[in-house]
User: Fold this.
Amino acid sequence: MTAPADIQQELSRVWNTLEGAHKMRASLFNLIIYTQKTSRDSYLHTVAHKVIEQFPCRILFISVEHEATEEYLRAKISLMYAGKEPSAIACDLIELEVGGAQLKRIPFIILPHLLPDLPIYLVWEEDPSLDNPIFEQMSLYASRLIFDSESTYHLPAFSLKLLDIYKEIKIDIADLNWARMENWRHLLTAHFYSSESLEKLQKVNEMTIFYNSHETASFCHTRIQAIYLQAWLSCQLEWQWIKTIKKNKDWVFVYQNKKDQILITLSPEDYPHLAPGIITAVTFSTKEDHQYSFTRHKEAPNHIVVKIGTPQKCELPTLHIFAKGDSGQSLVKEICHKGMSSHYLKVLDFVSKMENPC
Assistant:
């Protein structure tokens, strides 16, 4: 471990070890990851490695223990490598472990170690709706704020806080759970892009969204991606939310369009070999008894089987292939994206006015 005052000295020592090793140092941006000291630490370190593999950057990894029995502030300096030998690119990793009241020193410690003139992405892995004065200070540095709704127990409060942040400090924000279900938004958009198909979609009366409810040490709020998907659909189709009903293990969202009621059911399934919270299927029917099914192949999870049928005929099933994704790919997507998603802003506004469905 290194004393905070010696971070720059330790960085210089580490850099000197690269002399004659034919390694190049490079950084495209600064990445700050702020998290509580929990079981998610190992997952977030994996995420950091995934980012480095595609985008060389300087990472400042802050692990906080709010209820520590003793105050401490420790630093560790190491290197992570992007690419493969012998041309791997060396990237700086500055890890800070903080306990108790020492937390207030963090903004002042990291500031000198941010590479100037490069973007700063702040990944805030704590619920932003909870009061934390450190967040206000650190958000002033950021070019983009990236949250994870996995951290919250109250999704409407989380959504309202993100809207307030966006309005107050005018900075781009993102949510990793929104990025995790991006493929499903693209799939449904591709199948209902024409005016004719949209007209059929407007006649939906029942829909079921199946999701993987299998929890892990790093993920326990497995319903959020399904909540986001149904909220996005209702926003785009201009349905009015009426109420939410808990029915055994299912959650039923009741909507009203111009003429009829629509029932959207979120139904859990348990697949230990699949990522927690991912959507496994979307099925729905219309008033004319048109049936639509988009189902994830359980042995090839990036394959989606699409089936469409009417009372007169059944179309041959088609196959849609999602890009393969690993841990950390949602963060990579958000780093690649520019600007603020207007669709996500609508969903945040929509969810902020609902009862808590988490």
In short: The chain has a mean pLDDT of 89. The chain has eleven helices and 16 strands. The two ends are 39 Å apart (CA to CA). Residues 40-54 form the longest helix (15 residues).
